[in-house]
Every structure is written in structure tokens, then in C-alpha cells.
# Entry
Amino acid sequence: MAKACRAVAVVAVASAAFAAPAFAEFSLSGYWDEVMAEDLEARGPGPALGDYLGIPINDAARLRGDTWNASYQELPERQCVPHNSFYGWHAIGAARIWETTDLDTQKIIKLNTFILWNGLREIWMDGRPHPPETAPHTWQGFSTGRWEGDVLVVRTTHLKSGHITRNGIVFSDKAVMEERFFVHGDFLNHVQMLTDPVYLTEPFVRTDLLIRRPKTLLVHLPCRPSVEVPREKGVVPHNDFHDTSGSVAFARKFNLPLAAVRGGAETALPEFMDSPAAKVLAGTDQPAAKK
# Structure
């Protein structure tokens, strides 16, 4: 009788082991379309010059943003630079995700993502360590993933310096990105947290929402640089240092305090509107209108 009970127990445990998922309750594999309901103008035509509102930048990042000129993108050596893996998710129209597995064990070795204007990215799931700090940096960086329950957590290092927004706000090559992917039915919530000791005073958090599709428009777009605007050799489009005209114009257009559009961690908080800096409109000594 005891042997029979033990046998039943062993079978029950084995059955439970086979029934339980090895990693998570879902798969990210498939085609995904961006739900462009958040930050549409910034992600489409691009943000206004000098609009840094809500981004936890420091003075160095602000100064670099002020010197940025949109014609910089016309330079042949810049035309084919892909979106980095931080900005790429926020700018996409479509993405494909698929798994690479070990043929013998069927364990997932890596997740692959292909994003329009972003290219191929590999997320290693086999427990390998990140390379040393001196290893080459790339636009996609080096990514490793792990499951925390039904949430995929991804850590990315070794990123080349790239843009946070398409108006001159950038992160350095010392930045580290952490992502979380949540699936709810046919929707994918994607949360990014970017930490940068050079240009950010605290982590910058951004979210995206995608919807699963049976198929989506996703093609490789080759880039062939050309001279769009003839310039003398060595000329790089730029603004002068401390040129805040973009911020002033944006603030005046929307009747905002200049301190708000200049960015900083405090501008992302509701209580900022009660601060003295938020009481003065751009270019005037008049108090900001109450909402």
C-alpha cells in the first residue's frame, strides 16, 4: 500500500513538472504593431526644438541639446545611422519577435527582434555574462533577459551614444537600459528605464503599447546616403552654445514657463507648477495663466 502511494505521488509530481511552464505563461513571438496613442507628435514628425519638458537632464545634456540643428541629419555620414535600441521601440511602426532555441534541449537561447529603422537585436536568454566595459559598443548594445514570473526583464549595456529624443537630447555610452515586457491578451506593454551618469540626474522611464497582428508591414529598408545639401568640407550644422531660442519659441507658442520646457527631473512632477520657476512665462515677467 505504501509503495502504491509513493508511486502515485511520483507520477503526480512528474505530471505537475511537465504541466508547469519552464519560463512564462506566454510567448512574445509574432508580429506587433505600435499603438500610436502616446506622444504621437514627438514620435511622428518629431519634437519641437528646445522642448525638453519632463526629461531628467542635467546642464550638460541641456547645452548639447541647444547646439543641435535639424540639418545635422542631412549629413551623408548621419543619414544611415539606425535608431538605437532605446529610441527604436518608441519610434517603430512595426516589429517582429522570434525565438532561437537549442535543438536538443529546446531551451530558448535568445530572443530576436527586428524593428523598422532599427535593425536586428539579440536578447540572450542563456545566462551568459555581459562583456567587459572595454568591449565594443553598438547601436543595439548587448542585451540579456530573464523571466520574473510572467514578466520578461531585459538589461542592456554597451550602447553607443544615441538620441533620447529627435531634437538633440542624447545619452552617453555609459548608459544602461532596463526593460520590462508584459503581455495582456493581444497587447504588449513595454516599459523602459534608462540610467546615464553623464547626462541624466535620475532614470528616465518611458512606455509603449503594441498590439499583436497575424502579419504586418515589415521590410528591410536599405539606406544609400547622398549629398542633399552641398556644404564646404568640414561644415557641420549647429547652433551656438547657450542658444535657447528654440525653447523660448516653444514656450511662447504654448504659453508655458520657460523653466518647464528646459527640462529636468522636477518638470515631470505635478508639484513643479507650484514652484517659483513655474510662475513666469517665457520672455516676460508675467505670471503663468492658471489652468
